[in-house]
Design a protein that fits this description.
Blueprint (H helix, E strand, L loop, with lengths): L2 E8 L3 H12 L4 E5 L7 H4 L17 E2 L12 E2 L21 H9 L7 H11 E3 L14 E3 L7 H12 L23 E2 L2 E2 L2 H10 L4 E5 L1 E8 L2 E9 L2 E13 L2 H11 L5 H6 L3
Parallel strand pairs: 1-2, 1-12, 2-9, 5-6
Antiparallel strand pairs: 3-4, 7-8, 10-11, 11-12
Helix pairs in contact: 1-6
């Protein structure tokens, strides 16, 4: 069966889910390709089970680093989500924005448009913050719920007090105006459930009828000359091409995205020739 859409996105993780949601919001027709399976079930949806999914082959790609020279040649586990919601369905759910100075350093280094003042409106647009009223730093109308939990255990306050006693600053909101310091932790948990990218973005987008999810393994980008026109996938043992009339978007993680590009002939020419690409 032939599948096509205006936009074809590879990867139903944090990036692909958010982009699909915003494209559908703009009235566009979208297909998301995802190799992983369903995120239903307690191991993913129940926050207390967080240590399980990142150690289960059904949900995790099982990547490892190259041998680390300064760690005695050990390989480090590098969990990446292989499931709807991607790594947001297997992570620890702790919500911490990148530091403002890191973004500003990127801009100073030439990444125009990536200063903290540039990205802050998108952080605010993304989140529904449950830590207080909307401020110039925090948003209250986005799809991603960010909560602080009950903090009823006296050890929470004792921990912050201990940090202060040790000479560290205290902050009421480490994702707000003052990022350094001890203070309440935030998490992508809502009403006792993991609020993954699948729950925040994919499911609302699916309800519009403008988004379809195709389960399959992306093998390569299909080009017409230098224009990407689709993605070749393997689905149920068959090779198919999902066609894109507008754009192909690769959102398959920082590991699988470059891999997919190289399998498509995009990358260091000498390295690709070594592998017969």
């Amino acid at each position: 069966m032939s599948v096509s859409a205006e936009f074809v996105i590879v990867g139903a993780g944090s990036g692909g889910s958010a982009l699909a949601y915003r494209l559908v919001e703009a009235g566009r027709d979208v297909v998301v390709i995802e190799h992983g399976g369903s995120d239903a079930g307690p191991f993913i949806q129940m926050p207390g089970a967080l240590s399980y999914p990142m150690n289960m082959g059904i949900y995790d790609w099982g990547f490892q680093s190259e041998p680390e020279e300064h760690l005695g040649g050990r390989r480090l586990a590098t969990p990446r989500g292989k499931v709807l919601g991607g790594s947001s369905s297997i992570n620890g759910m702790v919500y911490v924005r990148g530091h403002a100075r890191d973004f500003d350093h990127w801009e100073e280094s030439g990444a125009t448009g990536w200063g903290y003042a540039d990205v802050l409106p998108y952080y605010k647009r993304m989140e529904h913050w449950h830590g207080g009223e909307e401020t110039e730093w925090r948003g209250r109308s986005g799809p991603l719920h960010v909560t602080r939990g009950p903090r009823a255990n006296p050890l929470f306050d004792a921990f912050v007090a201990a940090g202060k006693a040790a000479g560290y600053p205290v902050t009421e909101d480490y994702n707000g105006q003052q990022q350094e310091g001890f203070g309440p932790m935030e998490a992508t948990i809502y009403k006792g459930r993991r609020w993954s990218a699948a729950n925040a973005y994919l499911r609302p987008a699916l309800k519009t009828g403008k988004l379809r999810i195709v389960r399959g393994l992306a093998r390569r980008v299909v080009f017409d000359g230098k224009k990407a026109v689709g993605v070749e996938i393997k689905r149920k043992g068959q090779i198919e091409v999902v066609r894109a009339s507008s754009e192909v978007v690769l959102a398959a993680s920082s590991i699988n995205t470059p891999k997919l590009l190289m399998l498509s002939g995009v990358g260091p020419a000498a390295h690709l020739r070594e592998h017969g690409v």
